[in-house]
Amino acid sequence: MKRGPGRIRIIGGSLRNSRLDVPELPGLRPTPERVRETLFNWLAPVVAGARGLDLCAGTGALGIEALSRGAASVQFVEPQPKAAQALRDNLARLKAAGGQVAAMDAQRFLEGPPSRFDLVWLDPPFDADLWAALAGQLERGWLSPSAWLYVESPRDRVPPLPPAWRLHREAQAGEVRHALYRRAQMLPLS
C-alpha cells in the first residue's frame, strides 16, 4: 500500500491533536491511531518518566506519543534521510523536549555503546525480516531489567524473540499483529 504525503495525529497527552507531517516514502507504514491508542492504554502506568527507544522510527509517531504522555526521553533511529529530517522538523515544531534523532540504520546504531531503555518500539520494515537480529542486539545491554517492548509484525507471523521477552498482550488490526512484551528479570544461577 502506497501512502502519499500527509499528516497523522497524536492522540493523547500534552501534544494531543497535534499533527505530524508524513513524507511520501516507499514502505513507510505509520502505526494507525487505533493501534497507538490500544498500545498506550496498555503502557499508561509505565510511560511517565521512562526512557524510550524508537527503532526504525519512520514518522516517529510512537515515540512522540510517548513524549506527549510524559516519557523523559526518546531516542529515534531512522535511516531514511527524508524521514529522519521530517522527524526532526516535527519534534522542533511541536517543541517536543527529550527527543533525539539518529539518522542511521538500527543495526548500526545498536553496534554503538549501549544505553539502557525502559520502553522499546520494534517495528522494522516487514520485508527486511530484522526482528530476531535487532532483538538479539537489544539484549546486549540496551534494556533495563524489566523493559517493555512493543513489536509490530505481519498478522500471520510471530517473530522469533529472546526467551526473556514474555508476551504481555497482543492484538491484530488489519494485516498487522501488534504485541507488547515484558522483559523478565533473569535471576542469577546459584
Supply database-style keywords.
9 strands; two-stranded antiparallel ribbon; 5 helices; globular; Rossmann fold; 190 residues; 30% strand; alpha/beta
Molecular structure report:
This protein has 190 residues and is α/β, with parallel strands linked by helices. The chain has one domain (6-183): Vaccinia Virus protein VP39 (Rossmann fold, 3-Layer(aba) Sandwich). 24% of the residues lie in helices and 30% in strands. Strands 5-4-3-6-7-9-8 form a 7-stranded mixed β-sheet, sandwiched between helices. A hairpin with a 2-residue loop joins strand 8 and strand 9 (176-183). The longest helix is centred in the middle third of the chain and has 14 residues, at 81-94. It is globular and about 40 Å long. The N and C termini lie far apart (52 Å). The mean pLDDT is 90.
CATH superfamily: Vaccinia Virus protein VP39
Question: What name does CATH use for the topology?
Answer: Rossmann fold
Q: Helix tally?
A: 5
Total domains: 1
Order of helices and strands: EEHEHEHEHEHEEE
- Return the average pLDDT rounded to an integer: 90
Q: Kindly, what is the distance between the CA atoms of the first and last residues, rounded to a whole number of angstroms?
A: 52 Å
The first-level CATH class name:
Alpha Beta
**Spatial strand order of the main sheet:** 5-4-3-6-7-9-8
Strand coverage percent: 25-35%
The tally of strands reads 9
Second-tier CATH architecture:
3-Layer(aba) Sandwich
Based on CA atoms alone, the radius of gyration comes out at 15 Å
Amount of helix? 10-25%
Structural class: alpha/beta
